[in-house]
Write a structure and sequence with these properties.
By secondary structure, the chain is of the alpha/beta class. The chain contains ten helices and twelve strands. The radius of gyration is 22 Å and the shape is globular. The chain starts with 6 loop residues before the first strand and ends in a 7-residue tail after the last helix. Keywords: ATP-binding, Cell membrane, Ion transport, Iron, Iron transport, Membrane, Nucleotide-binding, Transport.
C-alpha cells in the first residue's frame, strides 16, 4: 500500500508572460482518491498540473506537499513521491519502448546504485498493465499515437510514485483504450491507494471515474466536490457556456451530461421548416465508387 500525502495549492497565481491563467487559487487534493480536473480550453488545467509538479514556478502563492513547498524540494526527492505525465511528452529519437519505460526508474537510482531486480520487476509490471509488452523492443517514434500514449503511461507507472498527475491520459486513444486506461488507473488507486489527479475533457468519463471533481473557470475554482455535486446543468452552463440535461448514468449511477445543440427541439417546440436544398445529394467516396471500402 502507498503512503498518503497531502497536496494543496494556497493562493496560487500562475501565468505566462503578461497573461495570468490562474489567479489566487486554493484547493486540496483528497489523499488516496481520484481527482479529475475539468474546464473549458485555456482555463488553466494543464498549467495547474505543471505547477503542482514544480515545472512552472508560481507568480504568487505556493504548492505544498506534506507541509513543504514543492518548488523548494530537490527534484529527485519530489520525483520519488510525485509523478507527472504531461500532455505532449517528447521521447528521445530512436529510444526503444523498454528503455523509455525504464527511465521511470531514474528517481530511484542513487549515485552508486545500479539497476536491480526491483527495477526489472517495475518495468515488466508497467508494460504488462498497459499491454505494451509486444512493443518493448520497438522504437517509440515508430508507434501510433495511441501506442505511444500507452507507453508514456507505462513509464509513469514504472516510477511507482504515491501521487500521479496525468494531463489528458486518454489523448489519441480510441473509446475501448480510453476505458482500459481509466480502469487501469482506478485499479492502481484501489489496490495501492495511489492518489491520482488527472485532466479529462470528456465530462461523462470524468464523472464516471472521479471520486473528487474540480471545475475551473475564469482563472479560479468554480466548483469542487463529488461528481453529483459538481456536474450540474448550472455548472456546465457557467463553465462551458453550454446548455445540457443531467441524467443518471445507467452504468455507473453517476451523473451523465447530455449536451443540447441549437438544432435540438426542447419542451415540445415546433421545429423550424428547412428549405429544400438544390444541391446534388451527397455521395461518399465509398458509395460513389463501385467496390470501394470506406476507411
Amino acid at each position: 500500500m502507498t503512503t498518503h500525502h497531502r497536496l494543496t495549492a494556497e493562493g496560487l497565481t500562475l501565468g505566462y508572460g503578461d497573461r495570468t491563467v490562474v489567479d489566487s487559487l486554493d484547493l486540496a487534493v483528497p489523499p488516496g482518491r481520484i481527482t479529475v480536473i475539468v474546464g473549458a480550453n485555456a482555463c488553466g488545467k494543464s498549467t495547474l498540473l505543471r505547477s503542482m509538479s514544480r515545472l512552472l514556478a508560481p507568480r504568487a502563492g505556493r504548492v505544498v506537499l506534506d507541509g513543504k513547498e514543492v518548488h523548494r524540494l530537490p527534484a529527485k526527492e519530489l520525483a520519488r513521491t510525485l509523478g507527472l505525465l504531461p500532455q505532449s511528452p517528447v521521447a528521445p529519437e530512436g529510444i526503444t519502448v523498454s528503455d523509455l519505460v525504464g527511465r521511470g526508474r531514474h528517481p530511484h537510482q542513487g549515485i552508486f546504485s545500479r539497476w536491480n531486480e526491483q527495477d526489472d520487476a517495475a518495468v515488466a509490471a508497467a508494460l504488462e498493465a498497459t499491454h505494451t509488452e509486444p512493443l518493448a523492443e520497438r522504437a517509440v517514434d515508430e508507434l501510433s499515437g495511441g501506442q505511444r500514449q500507452r507507453v508514456w503511461i507505462a513509464m509513469a507507472l514504472a516510477q511507482q510514485t504515491d501521487l500521479l498527475l496525468l494531463d489528458e491520459p486518454t489523448t489519441f486513444l480510441d473509446a475501448s483504450h480510453q476505458i482500459e486506461v481509466l480502469d487501469l488507473l482506478t485499479d492502481l488507486n484501489r489496490s495501492r491507494g495511489t492518489t491520482i489527479v488527472m485532466v479529462l475533457h470528456d465530462l461523462n468519463l470524468a464523472a464516471r471515474y472521479a471520486d473528487h471533481l474540480i471545475a475551473l473557470a475564469d482563472g479560479g475554482l468554480h466548483a469542487s466536490g463529488t461528481p453529483s455535486e459538481v456536474l450540474t446543468e448550472e455548472t456546465v452552463r457557467a463553465v462551458f457556456d453550454l446548455d445540457s440535461r443531467i441524467i443518471e448514468d445507467p452504468v455507473s449511477g453517476r451523473p451523465l451530461m447530455l449536451p443540447i445543440g441549437r438544432h435540438h427541439v426542447l419542451d415540445g417546440a415546433t421545429p423550424v421548416p428547412q428549405e429544400p436544398s438544390s444541391a446534388e445529394p451527397y455521395q461518399s467516396e465509398a458509395s460513389a465508387t463501385p467496390g470501394s471500402t470506406r476507411k
